[in-house]
Design a protein that fits this description.
Pfam families: ABC_membrane, ABC_tran. By secondary structure, this protein is α/β, with parallel strands linked by helices. It folds into 2 domains: about 325 residues, ABC transporter transmembrane region fold (Up-down Bundle); about 130 residues, P-loop containing nucleotide triphosphate hydrolases (Rossmann fold, 3-Layer(aba) Sandwich). The protein is built from 22 helices and 10 strands. It has a 6-stranded mixed sheet with strand order 6-7-8-3-9-10, sandwiched between helices. Strand 1 and strand 2 form a beta hairpin. The longest helix has about 50 residues.
């Protein structure tokens, strides 16, 4: 989703909460520049004192002594330099802190919004591209607020004050210094318009590069096992080269800005130097005024050369702002319900009534399916790959929304329940175990943060994990690496089971929970299954039928439809799909 507003307007709208800090920073920037522009006037006044002596401008105020006049100028210089330094410190601190605050808040807002989006959004976008928005794009905005905003304010203040001073002091000469201004402003706007699409392309290319890098780092084991290092270097080289070339196109244009502006500035400076000098020699312009004009011309025009760098920062920031704001504008389609259902009140009965679901642009994965999972019972769902078993898990957790039909928990439609209550009531052990970089204890307690070590060890013992954990170098404080890569697949799965047990949910879903464990570990988990499933609804999704043979009811799915149901013995008697799968897996002919 995109917004037609300019990135700057969207940034201003977002920054509404910081208006007090912004006003303070703007005031300090403007005041600093006002005092920064005062020294040329002091120099002109000093020249006037030296040349005119008792007839100087200060003398006309009643101070005729030359030393006293110079002393007054010295005291004014001290005050002005002091205030300039004070306001420089103030604006630096204010702008930098503001940049850090907005960067911090914007990143948190973007991440929080990202977490609220449904799974389909993530499946269409790479992790690296999203990371590029959360990090690189927000950092670009921070760099602009750190430097560029103050630069624009100070240049604007310079133009207004010096332009007005020229018109007041020497209206007949000032036009020469002011003549280049329209061309400089026109050039800045023209460059900005031409740079905008080039920097948008730069941001897109860097996000693609980041996406490829993140993907490769995640899959480094696969890359090594297939000896594809050279191939991946070629791919990264191509992505990095595309990023470099898009930057070169932007640089080629932005680098031309300053030299062109310098030529216009030079024309204005030469005009004041020659024409103003001749006017001073002819006596039509005071020497002190001429000195002020020469100094102010330089102070007016030379800072404009920095517009190139500022413009560069601005365009990069606006390209990044567009991407961040587009993320924030992405609508949240999965809305929480209103009904609260605390975990302590959940009985655990789940019912699916005529549900149909399809992933975007695909045929239905589940079609007109009805299932009943009574509270406190162990229900198994089996079937061939692609039959829709794991999709059911996503629907039960409302990671996706059903297109037709209803799913209820204790008779309440899941869409009416508060999402946090629903997901707190369900514990999931997925076939694709995800463990965080951290200690064993941190991974087991994830989601159940306020628990004691004895509770952690109890959960680990039920999951048959305590023994191997004690053999690790630091036991429960052992760092297991990103995604738990220092552990075997079976060890990872047992930690995931312990994590779900510690959560103690009224509904426990085991999605191929023993798929990565060896026969001995599977037998150990089976021995503890009675304890795990006590007083809770357990949904076991499995390929290996040996893990679900003792379930209270087994549902057999095929191509998104329910084709059989019953106990293990009842299904064997039917001599259909389940019986065939059992014979294949058990070796019975």
């Amino acid at each position: 989703m995109t917004n037609d507003q300019s990135p700057l307007k969207r940034l201003f709208a977002y920054g509404h909460n910081y208006r007090t800090e912004i006003r303070q920073a703007i005031a300090c920037s403007v005041l600093n520049k006002i005092f920064d522009l005062a020294p040329p006037a002091l120099i002109g006044a000093a020249v006037d004192v030296v040349v005119q002596k008792e007839d100087s401008l200060i003398a006309q105020l009643g101070v005729t002594d030359i030393f006293t006049q110079l002393l007054i100028l010295a005291l004014l210089s001290l005050i002005i330099w002091g205030l300039e330094s004070l306001f420089e410190y103030a604006y630096n601190r204010l702008w930098r802190n503001l940049a850090q605050t907005i960067q911090h808040d914007l990143r948190l807002d973007a991440y929080a919004h990202l977490q609220s989006l449904d799974l389909a959004y993530f499946e269409d976008r790479s992790t690296g591209r999203l990371m590029s928005i959360l990090n690189d794009d927000i950092n670009q905005l921070e760099r602009f607020l750190d430097v560029g905003a103050n630069e624009i304010l100070q240049v604007s203040t310079t133009v207004v004050i010096i332009g007005a001073t020229f018109v007041i002091l020497a209206p007949g000469v000032s036009w020469m210094a002011l003549l280049p201004m329209p061309f400089i402003l026109w050039g800045s706007i023209a460059f900005q318009r031409r740079l905008a699409p080039r920097y948008a392309e730069v941001r897109e290319k860097v996000s693609l590069l980041n996406g490829q890098l993140a993907n490769n780092l995640t899959g480094i084991t696969t890359i090594k096992s297939f000896t594809a290092e050279a191939y991946e270097i070629q791919r990264i080289t191509a992505q990095s080269e595309a990023y470099r070339q898009s930057n070169r196109r932007a640089i080629a244009l932005s680098a031309a800005f300053v030299p062109l502006i310098r030529i216009l500035i030079l024309l204005g400076f030469i005009g004041i130097l020659l024409y103003g000098g001749m006017e001073a020699v002819a006596g039509r312009l005071a020497v002190g005024t001429y000195s002020v004009l020469v100094f102010l011309t330089q102070r007016l025009l030379w800072p404009l050369t920095r517009l190139g760098q500022t413009l560069d920062l601005y365009q990069r920031a606006m390209a990044s702002t567009s991407r961040v704001m587009n993320l924030l504008d992405t609508p949240i389609t999965m809305h929480s319900g209103e009904i609260s259902l605390p975990v302590s009140q959940v009985k655990g009965e789940l019912a699916l009534k005529n549900i149909t679901f399809s992933y975007q642009g695909r045929h239905p994965v589940i079609e007109n399916l009805s299932l009943l999972m009574p509270a406190g019972k162990t229900i198994a769902i089996v079937g061939a790959t692609g039959s829709g078993k794991s999709t059911l898990v996503k629907l039960l957790l409302r990671l996706y929304e059903v297109q037709d039909g209803t799913i209820t928990l204790d008779g309440i439609d899941l869409r009416q329940l508060q999402l946090a209550d629903l997901r707190q009531a369900i514990g999931l052990v997925s076939q694709d175990v995800f463990l965080f970089h951290g200690t064993v204890r941190e991974n087991i307690t994830y989601g159940s943060f306020n628990v004691t070590l004895s509770e952690v060890t109890a959960a680990a013992e039920i999951a048959e994990a305590h023994e191997f954990i004690c053999q690790l170098p630091q036991g429960y404080d052992t760092i297991i690496g990103e995604r738990g890569q220092k552990l075997s697949g079976g060890q990872q799965q047992r930690l995931a089971i312990a994590r779900a047990i510690l959560k103690n949910p009224p509904v426990l879903i085991l999605d191929e929970a023993t798929s990565a464990v060896d026969n001995e570990t599977e037998a150990a988990i089976q021995r503890s299954l009675e304890k795990i499933t006590q007083n809770r609804t357990t949904i076991a999704i499995a390929h290996r039928l040996s893990t679900v043979r003792n379930a209270d009811c087994i549902y057999v799915m095929d191509k998104g439809k329910l084709v059989e149901q019953g106990t293990h013995e009842q299904l064997l008697e039917q001599q259909a799909i389940y019986a065939m799968l059992w014979r294949v897996q058990s070796g019975v002919k």
